[in-house]
Amino acid sequence: MLRDHGMADALRSFAISAPMRNSSVDNGIGRCPRPIQSAMYFRAMEATQNVAKHAGDGARATVTLGRDGALATFAISDDGVGMDVSARGDGDGLVGMRDRIGAVGGDLQIASTPGAGTTVRGAVPLDHGLADAAESEDAP
Questions:
Q1: Which of 4-18, 55-69, 120-134 has the lowest mean pLDDT?
Q2: Which of the residues 19, 60, 82, 139 has the least number of beta carbons within 10 Å of its own beta carbon?
Q3: Any residues with CB less than 8 A from the CB of 62 and at least 6 apart, and which?
Q4: How confident is the model over 16-47, as pLDDT tens digits?
Q5: Which pTM does this prediction carry?
Q6: How far apart are the C-alpha atoms of 67 and 12, rounded to whole Å?
Q7: 62 DSSP β-pair partners
Q8: How far apart are CA 51 and CA 136, in angstroms?
Q9: How many CA atoms lie within 13 A of 79 on its CB side?
């Protein structure tokens, strides 16, 4: 689905079988170079799965995709229990997510407040210089 139809359609397909309620909003992401598309797609899936694990019963997530100039952007926001990120620090999962987005020149940020949900936001430059034919370790 990702290779044939792009990130927005692939995430909509994932939403149907996700372990919790979620939605996807496409603000014009379009197609991206494969390594960037793969890194963003799998981080969005991972963040959505983290909502199911950590945000509490009944939590909902929204995945938003878009472009901001020469950046491809994504955000996964939930209405769950949130956390104090300054006290918690980054576990292995968050470090891995940052590393994988960093590998394609991007940046990942986490914002959360106890009782008010969490947002994982990322941006990747589309001109990172990666060849479209290059494959990432996550490519389907």
A1: 120-134
A2: 19
A3: 22, 23, 24, 25, 76, 77, 78
A4: 877 778 888 899 998 889 999 999 989 888 88
A5: 0.82
A6: 18
A7: 23, 77
A8: 25
A9: 8
Domain residue limits, the chain: 2-125
Which residue from 93, 82, 22 is spatially nearest to 56, judged by alpha carbons?
A: 82
The alpha carbon of residue 11 and the mean position of all alpha carbons in its chain are separated, in whole angstroms, by 10
- Which residues face 73 on adjacent strands? 66, 123
Question: Which homologous superfamily does the CATH classification assign to the domain defined by 2-125?
Answer: Histidine kinase-like ATPase, C-terminal domain (3.30.565.10)
- Region label for 58, one of left (φ > 0), alpha (ψ between -120 and 50) or beta (otherwise): left
Tokens coding 51: 């909502």
Instruction: Determine contact, residues 67/128, Cβ cutoff 8 Å.
Output: no
